[in-house]
Specification:
Chain A has strands at residues 9-12, 18-23, 35-40, 47-50, 64-69, 72-77, 86-93, 99-101, 105-109. Chain A has 110 residues and is mainly β. Helix content of chain B is 0%, strand content 53%. In chain B, the strands form two sheets. In chain B, strands 2, 4, 5, 6, 9, 10 and 11 form a seven-stranded mixed β-sheet that branches. A four-stranded antiparallel β-sheet of chain B has the order 1-3-8-7, with no helix packed on it. Chain B is globular, with a radius of gyration of 13 Å. In chain B, 37% of the residues are buried. Classes of the chains: A mainly beta (110), B mainly beta (118).
Chain lengths: 110, 118
């Protein structure tokens, strides 16, 4: 199984909105509504932000939102804050009942 | 609230078997609520899903690692374990255990660094 495709880096200024894409195939992202997103700060374990494409776990800020169109899922962060600077990963269920991650995106808050 | 803690050797020799355990507290591996996953992250690299197990013993593994991986569950100790055989330097990574629900990893351990070196 191939890793999902994410941009290596994105950046934005405080208060702005940014979107991170996650592109797969019909065998993963496009075939199932089981895309999740994670935030990872340096030296820390990843934290779940979004599950099942667009659902936020309890305690996650509503500044984080997810969506999907075809084989591409997206994570949008609105009202960008300095603390949002981190690495972001997507993940998807696949047609062979496995899970696969994206390569990760480094977000810089300017 | 479920909490996870990885444990095991931090140094493994090439060609040997890496063995890690994840101890579950605040919940039961037998509950059926979660699948239990192992994930790794090589230095300065991204996340790599290794595999998961259900309390019944049903497993699924990353195809790229399948020939070397075994994940098992010990309900009496409330633990699940990872064995990765024939390791090389490429297996050097931080290894995480995580709960898996609705195909998402919702609770993570803190991670444990494993170095493969002679």
């Amino acid at each position: 199984q191939s890793a999902l495709t994410q941009p290596a880096s994105v950046s934005g200024s405080p208060g702005q909105s940014i979107t991170i894409s996650c592109t797969g195939t019909t065998s993963d992202v496009g075939g199932y509504n089981y895309v999740s997103w994670y935030q990872q700060h340096p030296g820390k374990a990843p934290k779940l932000l979004i599950y099942a494409v667009s659902n936020r776990p309890s305690g996650v800020s509503n500044r984080f939102s997810g969506s999907k169109s075809g084989n591409t899922a997206s994570l949008t962060i609105s009202g960008l804050q300095a603390e949002d600077e981190a690495d972001y990963y997507c993940s998807s269920y696949t047609s062979i009942s496995t899970l696969v991650f994206g390569g990760g995106t480094n977000l810089t808050v300017l | 609230q479920v909490q996870l803690q990885e444990s095991g050797p931090g140094l493994v020799k090439p060609s040997e078997t890496l063995s890690l355990t994840c101890t579950v507290s605040g919940g039961s591996v037998s509950s059926g609520t979660y699948y239990w996953s192992w994930i790794r992250q090589s230095p300065e690299k991204g996340l790599d899903w290794i595999g998961y197990i259900y309390y019944s013993g049903s497993t699924n593994y990353n195809p790229s690692l399948k020939s070397r991986v075994t994940i098992s569950v010990d309900t009496s100790k409330n633990q699940f374990s990872l064995k990765l055989s024939s390791v090389t330097a490429a297996d050097t990574a931080v290894y995480y255990c995580a709960t898996t629900n609705t195909a998402a990893f919702d609770i993570w351990g803190q991670g444990t660094m494993v170095t493969v070196s002679s």
